[in-house]
Every structure is written in structure tokens, then in C-alpha cells.
Design a protein that fits this description.
single chain; 175 residues; 8 helices
């Protein structure tokens, strides 16, 4: 669990700010979803709750921002909904993995896509309703979904190969 928490923090540091949106491109969603699928619902969600607690405590685990300081204030900004969705998204991917979705490539991608849908839904609602209510859902989609959906989809396609391969190579089938 601690390893997935650390990997999420490291993935946040691989952050590319985009000039047309307050939401940066990071590798976090892939780690959140892969970690949730590998650890299962409870431990996957716990790893992400720990990540958020570390960030709230002021540790530099969130993606760099020129406008928001580290700490709890980050959750009030435009990326707060995405960040706060991580425990639920990991839970969803983990719950599906516990039901065998992590055994084959396509079903692993489906499990992680379900978790990614949670990330996007929470992030967009937060962006459009709480963080920047004046922009509305259309502009929230332009700022927080369309620039990321293709890249995140490609990351899921890559991540979908990991767990089935690990279980096959190790000869271990998690219960």
C-alpha cells in the first residue's frame, strides 16, 4: 500500500502544465487505477486516502502549481475534484479486480476505465460547480476532459497489460 502511495506522489511530479487549462497532465490516474486493481478495493482506496492525507499535511506530494500552495488549499482549487476522487476510483478498479477483471487484458482495461470515469466525473463536477462555477460544464469539459481523455485512454491500454501479465508470469492468481 505504501509503495502505491509513493508511486502516486512520484507520478504527480511528472506534471506538464498546459497553457489553456488549470489542470496539468500527470501520470497519476494510471498509478491510481493500476494500484487499485493490484491491491484490491480496500487497500487501493486506503493507499490514495494516505496520499491525500500526506498532501493535506503539507508534504510536497501534489503536482507543482504556480498558483496554489502545498497542503489542504490544493483540494479547494481546480484539481481538487480529481484528487479527491482517487480513493473512490482506486476502490472501483480494485472492486472489479477482486471479481476477476484483472485476469485478462480487456477486462483489466474495463476495470480501470470504470475507475477513470470516476476521476473524470468528480473532477469535472468539482471544476464546473465548486472551483470555477462561472465556467459551466461545457468549458469544464474543454479544460478538464478533452485535453486528457485520449492520453489517459492510451495509458489505460498500456496499464491493462500489466496485471494479467504479472499474474501469468508469477503463477499467482489473487483470491
Amino acid at each position: 500500500m505504501a509503495i502505491v502511495t509513493a508511486l502516486t506522489a512520484i507520478a504527480a511530479q511528472v506534471s506538464i502544465p498546459l497553457p489553456f487549462t488549470p489542470v496539468p497532465f500527470t501520470m497519476q490516474p494510471m498509478i491510481v487505477l493500476l494500484g487499485g486493481a493490484a491491491l484490491g478495493a480496500r487497500l487501493g482506496a486506503s493507499s490514495q486516502a494516505l496520499y491525500l492525507l500526506l498532501g493535506i499535511a503539507g508534504l510536497p506530494v501534489f503536482a507543482a502549481s504556480a498558483t496554489l500552495p502545498p497542503g489542504a488549499a490544493r483540494l479547494l482549487g481546480p484539481t481538487g475534484g480529481y484528487l479527491m476522487s482517487y480513493p473512490l476510483a482506486a476502490f472501483v478498479a480494485g472492486w472489479l479486480a477482486e471479481r476477476g477483471f484483472d485476469r485478462r487484458y480487456l477486462s483489466a482495461v474495463v476495470a480501470m476505465a470504470a475507475g477513470l470515469a470516476v476521476v473524470f466525473a468528480c473532477g469535472l463536477v468539482w471544476l464546473a460547480v465548486v472551483a470555477q462555477p462561472s465556467i459551466g460544464i461545457r468549458d469544464a469539459l474543454a479544460a478538464g476532459f478533452f485535453p486528457f481523455v485520449l492520453a489517459d485512454g492510451l495509458k489505460l491500454l498500456a496499464a491493462g497489460t500489466v496485471l494479467p501479465a504479472v499474474w501469468r508470469v508469477s503463477g499467482r492468481r489473487p483470491s
